[in-house]
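cron nightly-structures :: item 1 of 1
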Amino acid sequence: MDLLLRGRVDYLATYQEMRDFTARRTAESADQLWLCEHAPVFTQGLAGQAGHLLAPGDIPVVQTDRGGQVTYHGPGQVVAYPLVDLRRAGYFIKEYVYRMEEAVIRTLGHYGVTGLRVAGAPGIYVRLDDPFAHGALTGPATPQDRFRGLGKIAALGVKVSRHCTYHGVALNVAMDLEPFSRINPCGYAGLRTVDLSTIGITLPWNDAARLLGHKLDALLTP
């Protein structure tokens, strides 16, 4: 897999580049991983409901062809776009999502943070009261309780075309988190969003991007 540390790039242009790359790639095309940062933008998935976009204000809203609901991208967030031929890789979309989540969990683990999965809610979460605790989550009393005590630190959104993936995963590193209050993140009202700086981990964007890139490369490459 070719890793490209692209840094700050325009979201719409990058979105179109991903679509173009996927449309023209062949069975021999090498997989790529783009590591990006974007200016403030809200993006809607195919199933996105307007009611989850509460007050976008001056931040643009872009309709996309990925799965999922609304999310926010902005400075201080690492957005990783794996462009993977799943047929060649030899695994299906469910396994692909699991491997992306695992890469985030291992990236957080490098800094001592425990990343958690929540059933039925793709992405990675951390405990707000103790992000470094290692205990497993206990089952919620009701579906509404499943995010109690948790904050979302990474969001996923995927598109597969001709067995090839684009879009990807966003890890919050050191952001202005206020724009997340203008939406129901990923379609969940009241869901808290955090970044590494909020939980006491301070590091440069490039360091976080390179580490996440290496973890994704190791887990997604056949």
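cron nightly-structures :: done
The chain has a mean pLDDT of 94.
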